[in-house]
Design a protein that fits this description.
Layout (H helix, E strand, L loop, with lengths): L5 E3 L2 E3 L6 E5 L7 E6 L3 H18 L4 H17 L1 H12 L3 H21 L6 E4 L5 E8 L3 E5 L7 H12 L3 E5 L6 H13 L6 E3 L4 H9 L3 E7 L2 H14 L2 E5 L4 E5 L5 H13 L9 E7 L3 H13 L19 H17 L2 E4 L18 E4 L6 H4 L6 E7 L2 H9 L3 E2 L1 E5 L3 H10 L4 E4 L15 E2 L13 H4 L1 E8 L8 H4 L1
């Protein structure tokens, strides 16, 4: 069995703990990908010391030169796209056509952030005093601790790591223990691109090392993607430590379909939104709100399409939906199946694990749909993170929007309608960080802000130009060339 090591100061380094965990394919429990370190505080200190030393040089490297390296990384991601996609599929399950899209997001992010290093604009503004010049500049923050989930093991880390590097920060990265192999390739690519030693470091492990990253006094910023429960704990600790924090957490995303919509497109949209990545996306379509006039007919067609989905190993070309990530996930989803029975929900299809044929050794859950689900249902309100869709009827646009907003989360939302007025009202009234018109709740682009409101995030936005608000600080500069003391408001007014 292959054993992998931490990446510290440009070298592959054995863990101080001498402990390792196994990375197991969710499609086949007999397929063990390798062993990865369970890092401890000694490993983390080495990574932080490396990042601290490298920061002194990296922060003063001209930003366009940093961008040159990131664009080369984009070229290497492109060259290794299919190879990396297969590695990702093997360790986290979604089909290769999806993991190739995952890598493409990293490619897009490298090119975009690399180019933005020539546009890290500040502002110049008039002074209220004579012979005085005012301006602002962006400055890096220091060492960034990046902690990410397993469902997008290349795309989501790239949204944080690449802009952090572009801005002049150094990074200590802890990938999810459910998808660690992808981080190995990430490190290889940045090294080949010419990133100096110590600028990017990877420490593997479980929640304990993640907790130590959050608490480490030399790490100035935490970028976290994961559950709302964990995110709130991190927020509490970062508040205590006065540490900058960006959170990307849960979602319970609604798709509204009005009676004037293109129903074929809406069907394809909800099928992709609900069951793409086996429903294991923070942006997954997990609530479908159908107008009463189309309700029954739409459900019949959706049931047929869901039951026709081909489940299997994502490495097989005909697979449309892969496994869920692990036994813990299966247990959680099956708990909600029990809750659905207790609540008396109408099961349209699915509602069970399957171990038929080639699926016997994997973590496979049938595409599941419940109808006539009230807003009070736990399945309507709580994030399940699996291939489970709940359907609710609405009587009007206003009713649909009220139902969509009745949720603690606010990441993504969607409406299918051919009415311009309905579209504009939905854009204004839906409580979410992202809204799609005539598209499902998934489909973010790298050059646009990404993030949510309410229980989904803490106000920051990854992606696009807004990500640099996370990974830089503003410095205000005054230059007085009057030759005498000017006491601002005292002498000016």
């Amino acid at each position: 069995m292959k054993r992998f090591e931490n990446y510290i100061n440009g070298e592959w380094v054995k863990t101080n703990s001498s402990k390792y965990f196994k990375n197991i394919s969710p499609a086949d429990k007999n397929d063990i990908i390798g062993e990865f370190p369970i890092s401890d505080s000694v490993d983390l200190d080495k990574a932080v010391d490396s990042a601290e030393l490298a920061y002194k040089v990296w922060k003063n490297t001209p930003a366009p030169k940093r961008g040159d390296i990131l664009r080369i990384a984009g070229d290497i991601f492109t060259r290794r796209k299919n190879e990396l996609a297969k590695i990702m599929t093997r360790e986290m399950g979604k089909p290769v056509f999806e993991t190739e899209g995952d890598v493409q997001e990293a490619i897009d992010t490298c090119y975009y952030a690399g180019s933005e290093t020539r546009r890290l604009f500040g502002h110049t503004v008039p002074s209220e005093m004579n012979n005085k010049f005012n301006m602002t500049v962006r400055t890096p923050i220091g060492i960034c601790g990046i902690i990410t989930a397993w469902n997008f093991p290349i795309a989501v880390p790239s949204w944080k790591i690449i802009p952090a590097l572009a801005a002049g920060n150094t990074v200590v990265f802890k990938p999810s223990e459910d998808a660690p192999h992808s981080a190995i390739i990430f490190a290889e690519i940045l090294e080949e691109a010419g990133l100096p030693k110590g600028v990017f470091n990877v420490v593997f492990g479980d929640g304990q090392i993640g907790n130590e990253i959050v608490n480490h006094p030399k790490i100035k910023l935490i970028g976290f993607t994961g559950s709302t429960e964990t995110g709130k704990k991190i927020a509490s600790k970062c508040g205590e430590l006065n540490k900058k924090l960006s959170l990307e957490m849960g979602g319970k995303n609604p798709q509204i379909v009005m009676n004037d919509a293109n129903l074929d497109t809406a069907l394809d949209g909800v099928l992709w939104g609900a069951f793409g990545t086996t429903g294991q996306r923070c942006t997954a379509t997990s609530r479908l709100i159908l107008h009463k006039d189309i309700y029954d007919n739409f459900i019949i067609k959706l049931k047929d399409k869901a039951e026709a989905l081909k489940l299997g190993d994502g490495l097989k070309s005909d697979t449309q939906m892969g496994p869920v990530i692990n036994q813990k996930s299966i247990d959680k989803i099956e708990k909600y199946f029990t809750i659905a029975k207790q609540e008396g929900l109408t099961l349209i299809t699915g509602g069970a694990r399957t171990t038929d044929g080639d699926l016997a050794n994997g973590n496979f859950i049938l595409p599941t749909i419940y109808a006539d689900v009230p807003e009070s249902s736990r399945l309507f309100q709580e994030e399940i993170f699996g291939p489970v869709l709940v359907i609710t009827k609405c009587n009007s646009l206003e009713d649909a929007i009220n139902k969509a907003n009745n949720c603690q989360y606010g990441l993504s939302s969607s409406i299918f309608t051919n009415d311009v007025r309905s579209s504009m009202i939905a854009m204004r009234e839906l409580e979410s960080g992202i809204t799609y018109i005539n598209a499902p709740t998934i489909g973010a682009e790298a050059h646009m802000p990404f993030g949510g409101i309410k229980g989904t995030g803490n106000g920051h936005r990854e992606g696009g130009w807004t990500v640099f608000d996370i990974f830089t600080e503003w410095k205000t500069i005054y230059i007085d060339y009057s030759g005498s003391l000017q006491r601002a408001q005292i002498d000016n007014y």
